[in-house]
Design brief:
Elements: H1 3-15, E1 19-21, H2 22-29, H3 33-41, E2 47-52, E3 55-60, H4 72-89, E4 92-98, E5 115-120, E6 132-138, H5 146-155, E7 161-167, H6 182-192, E8 195-199, E9 209-212, H7 222-229, H8 236-239, H9 242-247
Parallel strand pairs: 6-7, 7-8
Antiparallel strand pairs: 1-3, 2-3, 4-5, 5-6, 8-9
Helix pairs in contact: 5-6
Length: 248
Amino acid sequence: MRVSDLRRLKRYLKEQGGKAACTAIVKEFGWSDDKLARLIDDSDSCLKRAHYGRIPGIALIGSERGQRGGVPLYRDVRRVLATTWARNQGWQSAIAIDTALNGKARTGVWSRPDCVLAWYPARRRSLDEPPTLSSYEIEAPGKFDLRSVYEAHAHGFGADFSWVVFFRPTASSKAGLPHPDWSRITAAAKTCGIGLLSVTNSGNAATWQIERAADRRADGDREEFVRRALPASERYKANYSLEVMRQA
């Protein structure tokens, strides 16, 4: 399969907002269904099969950071975190904050998570209580390893909880993931209190699975975390109480 074919397809998917129906793709390039299937298999995990209702399609899985709105992987995770996933956990008024809007405003390495979720527990001490902040390191397929845990720990310094979201191989089982460093990863996550959240489809909460729940953090400074991790235009979402948000 020619590299140029993959580049052309990726460019086309970006122009279409990150995904397109298979019928539209084969019509656009004059490819057969078999050729498109081979291209997906040879894409080094940068493409995934998706659906428009019942119509099969292809989505681009990106690993780029710093782009407004993000590519499908980050956009999907933010959407699911703030909606289906938050409801499933019993969280209220969840807001996913796009940290990419912070541009180049960074201080040091591993200083900013890929996403911050501001949410309220089902039972709050008072309406004046600010939201709980969870930081998320989102790993593209093939990028998850032991360093992901330590990165999540470092850039979540000051948050209430920190998680790593990563792709779970379809061949995995409840006994463990087929990752060569899985035992070391889980040990590091336990030591650092980091949550591990695996997915097979970033846009479908039904495929999300908690491998290890995050522990509440007691380190760092919340205000410093908000200044470091969030763009100025979004910081009010992490600082205002639910009552203030309702009156805004």
